[in-house]
Every structure is written in structure tokens, then in C-alpha cells.
Amino acid sequence: MAVPGRRNGMNDDDDNEEGLFEEEGLLEPEADTPPHLRSLAEAAQLGNVDALSRALDNFSGSIDEPVEDGDTALHLTCLYGYLPCVQLLLERGASMEAKDEDGAIPLHDACAGGFIEIVQLLISSANNPDSVKRMLDTVDVEGDTPLHHAARGEHANVIRLLLTFGASPTKANIYGKIPSELADPETEARRILETAANAVAC
Prior knowledge:
By secondary structure, the chain is mainly alpha-helical. The protein contains eleven helices and no strands. It has helices at about 25, 40-45, 50-55, 75-80, 85-90, 105-115, 115-125, 130-135, 145-150, 155-165, 190-200. Pfam families: Ank, Ank_2.
């Protein structure tokens, strides 16, 4: 999942702070994107729902085939916050539990960006409570759940939503960090997460 920025509460000095995504990544698919996936990848990156629909109509492969860096089209549209494209992909049968090369599912991407409408859509589109729980409990290669990603971005509304659906505020990642420890002190996100973690501990 291509989400630069703070990782596990630390600032990455190598990241470009002027923008969340590299400009060239928004203009065209990477050179290593297979030719048969380029139209799909470009439409997903740009959030062009009409182009995405055409690409899907002309696509004979799996909608869950990785189009870039292990990301499926659904990963990319969740990452960039393109709600209409996410809706289209879900209508066409895209898997909400497909994992990218870092073990993240689309919900990780939506939570990292703070896209609450997409987070709500993904959760409400799950077939049953077991599917919701699996998504909330899915960890990436660093042991981060979607709640960890929302915490790192200090997206308070997303955090509240995830907690409402049963996300664990006490699950630690591979660095031993629970979600509250990834949000800056004195922030609303930190207070919400600490309150939730304390309630579990009682």
C-alpha cells in the first residue's frame, strides 16, 4: 500500500511533505503495469468513473488482479478517496478482502486517508458480521489493523466508526504499539482511543 507519511508514530524524513502522492503516479500507471491492466490502473488512479466502467467492460481478467505495486483497482480508489469508483468496483464484484504486497486490504487504505464515506461503504457492504470482523482484524506486514492506520492519520470520525463496529483499541502491531500510541498527544484521536482502550482494560 503506497501510503507515505508517519509510520508507527515516527516521522519519515525521506517522504515528500508537499504532497501525499507523487505527481507522476497520478498521471499514468507505472511502467511495470502489465499492458492489459493499464487502462484499468489509469482510470482507478485518476478517479474517472466513466473510464473505469469502460475499462471494466473491456477487461477479461479478474477484477482483483493487482494493477500496481500489488494494489488492486479497489485498493487504489480507496487510497485516493474516489467514492464513485469504489461503488462501481464493489457493484462489479471487487473483493474487499484482497491483500496488496504489504498485506493490507482496501479498508486499510480508506482509513489511512480518512475517507469516512468509503470506510462506511466498505463495512456496510460486508455480507455478515464475520466478514466485518475479519476486515477490522486484518493486519498488514507491520501488524497494523485499519484502526492503526486511522490512528496514525488522526482521523477521529473514522476512529469512532471503526470502534462502533468492534475494532480493537488494544491490539498491538509488531512494534508493540496499540492504536492510541500512534496518534499525537493532546489530539481528539488520542483521547478517543485511550478512552476505548481503558474501557477494555476495566
